[in-house]
Design goal:
The chain contains 3 helices and 32 strands. The chain is mainly β and 425 residues long. Strands 24-25-26-27-1-32-31-30 form an 8-stranded mixed sheet, with no helix packed on it. The longest helix has 10 residues, at 9-18. The termini are close together.
Length: 425
Amino acid sequence: MSIIARRGVWQALILGVLFPGNALFAGETGQPPFAYVWGKAYHILPETTSEESGYFSLCEGLNGRIYVGTAKYGQNSYLVEFDPAKETQRIVIDTQKLCGLSATGYAAQAKIHTRNFVGPSGKIYAGSKQGYRRDGDKSEYPGGYAMIYDPKTGTAENLGMPYPGQGVIDVVADESRGLIYVVTCEDQHWMLYHTKTRAYRELGPVLTPYATTLIDRKGNANALTRQFQLATYEPKTGALRTRDILVDGTRFIRRDQNAIPIWQLAADGRTAYLILMNDPTLVEINLAGSGRTVTAKSHGKMVQGRNFDSRGSLSIAPDGRIYALVRVDNATGFGSGYLHHLARFTPRTKRMEDLGVLAVKNPDFFDFSPRGDGKPPPFSHGYHKLPDGTLTPLHVHMALLVARDGTIYATILYPFTLLRIDGSG
């Protein structure tokens, strides 16, 4: 079955043709004016979170298993392995235990926020960062750690603290050269680790918040600076340069604090695709150019709507198509709140598709019913039902991944959920 659920497709087409933009009609008929993208939900191990949350941390190992980072504020963080064949989960990294720590409160390693990187060896690279300071907590955060998990051996390794006082937001390895690139937060230092010397040094310049490193086909490391310039480090020569990015001839700039970039490297190793957290305009960047500026072009918005929000949710499928999750206001008249759309762009044909709204086909995956005090379970407010009874994410998605077999995975908050979508379409 296609990821575009057949239920609702014809309704969406008819409503769109006969009554374009007529939200009232959609509400009156009780039929959704959009397609559904159905997924099976799995509640991430509840003992690995404190508030049913996690961040961008989602990847597929070479063994076909899915790895999700979690947040347990004031206590710890974990990397959880999900086995798609057995539909089971287990902890593979206990951050505080691995790093020999016992601190709690603000000093704890409370998040694995890195998007995670899988090297050719199969090793998974991740990092830890701080949580939030609670009232009365006077502890200080010492700094985050870069870490490796090796599924082949079932062992984890602590690579130390890249920058004292700073958390880790990105870890990417160039295994062939023995180099590991780390981005810190909150000040976004770009750090380089040599596996032979086991030492870190700062590359510079300061990067944009939530920056990630892309290693292109030449082995050069690329990252976006605070000014949205492209910084490129050439390990062969040690040279580092920054260049303006021109999108259709206009300089790419960071307009506000929510302009957080999410980018991925295409299979050709020379092209990056990017959207922003608050703007789903798909930008194609040529990393291979040697000019004084970097050329890029816009392919338009991946989803139409208002108040865009896309969190760590751009992924390139093995067939080269680009997928993204984008949350928009529900202005259809069919329910309220927000809708989380899955979109797809095909580079070969330049076709942009809104595949539909995320929907949960097993709504009993979590017990949402009120507890003995009449209140809902803590941190269970991340889903809502549409007028036809469909359970759909409400507030926040956090990551998207297209696996090698075409299956699509997304993480949703409250409760912290892994959503698995068959991807044969």
